[in-house]
């Protein structure tokens, strides 16, 4: 399992804290998997899920008590991105600030690239 040696994808402190809270509430020993899938209203969509398995080619990003897993294909579309967590009156959610996205939908979960 390759460790992230360059800042391809980073977590804000809020995201790292929230991931650690979610994993602890689920009993620990899990990581947040961030993936990019074909679909959504703009061409690609983000997927977030807890995962106990680390694939051999996953990039593992650890910060404080949080661990994020990203497969190499998704990382190509997420290079230079930042994962944040927002908690407001409008709701709470993870949000990806992706410099590769040329457009995004209103929901913030799908995007397109050139």
Structure explained in plain terms:
The longest helix is centred in the first third of the chain and has 13 residues, at 13-25. A hairpin with a 5-residue loop joins strand 8 and strand 9 (110-112). By secondary structure, the protein is of the alpha+beta class. The chain has helices at residues 13-25, 72-78, and strands spanning 9-11, 31-39, 43-51, 59-63, 66-70, 81-88, 91-97, 103-104, 110-112. The strands form two sheets. The protein has a six-stranded mixed beta sheet. Strands 1-6-7 form a three-stranded mixed beta sheet.
Walk me through the topology.
Blueprint: E1 9-11, H1 13-25, E2 31-39, E3 43-51, E4 59-63, E5 66-70, H2 72-78, E6 81-88, E7 91-97, E8 103-104, E9 110-112
Parallel strand pairs: 1-6, 2-5
Antiparallel strand pairs: 2-3, 3-9, 4-5, 6-7, 8-9
Domain module count: 1
Overall shape: globular
Q: Give the name of the CATH architecture.
A: Sandwich
Order of helices and strands: EHEEEEHEEEE
Residue windows where pLDDT falls under 50 for at least 5 positions: none
